[in-house]
Write the structure tokens for this entry.
Amino acid sequence: MSRVFIISFDRDSQKDYVPFNNAFTSDPAILNWWHYIKSCYIVKTDLNADKLSDLVRSYFEKHGLKKAHIVLAVDLDQRQGWLTDDAWKWIRERAAEVD
């Protein structure tokens, strides 16, 4: 069963996150992803929070990034904020998929 999680972390302005992003978002466990805020990903996955956290940590380690992060399950129907139209479209579409 697919779930949606937010992954939030402290971004180091001195580091390049493109290699991490490309590797992490290409992982087969990541079914879909959103990254409209630099230090935040929303991902759809079949993993539980523990396994997703392990996956995130492994990619941070591989790319020499700080491992500090948090993984939280989210209910995309409970949402509000100030984002681009594309970001809201992605969230609405994922919310419809997990209903």
Q: What stands out?
A: The chain is about 35% helix and 25% strand. The chain has one domain: 3-98. The mean pLDDT is 93. The beta strands are 3-9, 30-37, 40-45, 69-73.
